[in-house]
Amino acid sequence: MKRVNKILENEKYLYYLKKNIEAEKNRVFCHHDLRHYLDVARVAYILALEENISLKKDIIYATALLHDIGRWKEYLEGVDHAIASTNLAKELLEIAEFNPTEQAIIQSAIRNHRKYDAKNPPLDQILYKSDKISRPCIECAVVKECKRFDIGQTPKLYY
C-alpha cells in the first residue's frame, strides 16, 4: 500500500482534509473526513471480495481516500463535490505513481460515486454502495432530519 501512503502523506491531500474539516465544523450530519474515507475503503474492499470482483486493494483504498476530498469546494464555491474531487485527485494520483489506466478507473468511480448505475464499471458501483452503507446512521442523533431517508424510514445496518 505504498502508493496509498503517498496520498496520505501528500501535503496537498492533508490541506484538502483540513479544508473539509473547516467547512464542516458546524455540520450536524455526517462529516467527510479521514474516518469516513477509511470506513468507505474497508467496506468497498469487503464488497469486492464478497462479489469476487478483481480490484487491487490499493486501487480501492486510493479511490475511497479521494472520493470526497473536494467536498469543501461544494460548500465554498457551489461546485459538485464529485467533480471537484475528481479534479483534485488527478495530481495526487500522478504523484502517488498510479498509471494512466488506473487513474482513469479511479477518477471514474470518484466522478460517479453519487449516482448508481448498473452499467457503470465495478469500482464505480462498489464505491457508491460502500459510501452509503459505511455510515453509522443507526446511532445518529439527527437521522430524522437527514435527506438520505424518507419520512418514517429507518436506517438498517448492513455491516
In short:
It contains 8 helices and no strands. The chain has 159 residues and is an all-alpha fold.
- In N-to-C order, the SSE pattern is HHHHHHHH
What is the third-level CATH name, the topology? Hypothetical protein af1432
CATH architectural arrangement: Orthogonal Bundle
User: Termini separation (Å)?
Assistant: 24 Å
Uncertain runs: none
| Radius of gyration over C-alpha positions, nearest whole angstrom | 15 Å
Fraction of residues in helix? 55-70%
Number of strands: 0
How many domains is the backbone divided into?
A: 1
The best one-word shape is: globular
The CATH superfamily is Hypothetical protein af1432
Description:
It is built from eight helices and no strands. It is an all-alpha fold and 159 residues long. The protein has a single domain (2-145), classed as Hypothetical protein af1432, CATH 1.10.3210. α1 (2-9) runs parallel beside α4 (57-66), α2 crosses α5 and α5 packs across α6. The radius of gyration is 15 Å and the shape is globular.
Topology (elements, then pairings):
Layout: H1 2-9, H2 11-23, H3 34-50, H4 57-66, H5 71-77, H6 81-95, H7 100-111, H8 122-133
Helix pairs in contact: 1-4, 2-5, 3-4, 3-8, 4-7, 5-6, 6-7, 7-8
List the defining traits of the structure above.
59% helix; Hypothetical protein af1432; mainly alpha; 8 helices; 159 residues
